[in-house]
Structure formats: structure tokens, C-alpha cells
Amino acid sequence: MTTSRTVKTFIAAGGLDPSAGAGLAADLAAAWSFGVIALPIATALTVQNSQQARASYPVNVAVVREQLETVYEDFQPSILKTGLVGSALLAVALAEFASSRGLRLVVDPVLRASSGLDLADQAALAAIKTTLVPNAFVLTPNAMEAASLTGLTVTSLAEAAAAARQLYQTGVSNVLITGGHLTTGDEVIDTLYNENGVSTFKSPRSCGNVRGTGCALASAVAARLALGDDVTVAIIAARAYVARVIEQAVPAGQGSRQGLPG
Fold first, then answer.
1. Interior CA angle at 116 toward 112 and 120, to 5°?
2. Maximum Cα–Cα distance for the chain, whole Å?
């Protein structure tokens, strides 16, 4: 005799990476590692491999809206996680959908590929800043993304805290600036700013180039929130998951390593 159970879900809206290292591929893997289903909606089709991202093409906003409405009608998730948005129109559509359904937003503001390709033009960046960011329940920029969103220099822990505070003041409930690009020696230190002020999360710095860790972190946070965790517990679990992904990453192609579900 089998016992049925309801599996938790969340919507993952982001870029489709045909080399399976980042974007929706990382979202699906992170969610599944926690027994959660990420409902993938492609907002952009990218041209990339393990060595470089070459192009990104936004998906028609009407198609994305139709997909959002259809999956919500069936699964009724409580969380929408966004990654690569693709266009200003899509940023607005995602924010409006989350607001109209009362969904908590987990926003990973993907602005540039690790190989240097800009993934958000000025119009898209402006729309992300005015629609998605202020309405985020959790915002997870890296240092470079935090700098783009605030106009501040973000290279140290003190600067990360200042940027997180500024983003919090726009309306974000929880700002988590990831510390992989900060000058903090042998440790990676992530900075959280919320109603309780500043707190930090530390772990040893790992060696090696692994793609999709930012996507994985945000989706792991979304998965844990879907399971009922509070923000701090969700972040701790997500950081542990990303550490496992980096540790277990394997060569798959001629460029950066491929993360495997932890």
C-alpha cells in the first residue's frame, strides 16, 4: 500500500541554458534535491556552452503570461522565483502576476553571464529595479549585480552591507548579497539585510569554476520556503546545497565544471 502526499512546487521563470549548467536546469536540480518541483517557464532562450554565453533571446511576453496562468491554475504554488528576465516587458509581467496571485517573489537579478555577455539591456535593468526588486520577498544579487542595482561600489563586506541596506529600503523584505566576488580571503561571506538588520553567513572559499551557483542558491531558497522554512533556515540549507554542488561538480565540456544535484 502506498501513501500519497502533496509535493510542494514553485514557479521558476528564467533562461534556458542548452548546456544545462545554469538557468532553468540549475533551478530544476536544486528544487528536486529537496523533494520540490520547480515549474519551469522560459523567459529567454540563450545560446551558450560551458565556455561562453553568446546570445540571449527573450520569449514573447504573451506566451509567458499564458504559461504562468496555466501552471498556476493547476498547481497553485505560493512562490515565483525569477532569474534571467529577458526584457522590460517580461519583468513587468512577472511582477504583475506575482502581485495578482499573492505569490512571494524570490528574485535572482541575473544581469550578465559569467563569460561577460550582458543579459539585461538598460530598459530591462530599469524594469527589474522598479517592478521586481521592490516587491521581492528574497533578493539574491551577487556583488556585481548589487552594484548595478544600487550604483554603489560593492567590493567589501562593509560595502555589501551598505548596498543591502539601500535595497532593503526600496521595499525588499530580505536582501542576501552573495559574497563570492568580495575580497574576503579564504572565506565566502554572504550578507543578509532585513528587519533585524545585518547578519552574515560564512563558509570556506571553494576552488574551481562552476556555473549556475547563483541560480542554484536562489532556487534552493525558493524550494525551502515552499517547504515552510523561515528565511534564515532556508538560506542555511541553500548554502549547504550549493557547497555540495561545487564539491561534486564534474567536467562536462571544455569550459567550466558542471554542478550536480547535491
1. 30
2. 59
Report the number of distinct structural domains present in the chain: 1
The residues, ordered by sequence, that sit 6+ positions from 122 with a Cβ below 8 Å of its Cβ are none
Write out the residue range of the structural domain in which residue 13 sits: 9-248
pLDDT digit string (tens) for 220-255?
Answer: 999 999 999 999 999 999 999 999 988 887 777 777
pTM, to two decimals: 0.95
164: region left, alpha or beta (phi > 0 left; psi from -120 to 50 alpha): alpha
176: CATH: 3.40.1190.20
Query: Which residues lie closer than 8 Å to 209 by C-beta, 6 or more apart?
Result: 114, 255, 256, 257
- The verdict on residue 255 lying in a domain is no
Please write the tens of the pLDDT for every residue from 8-22.
999 999 999 999 889
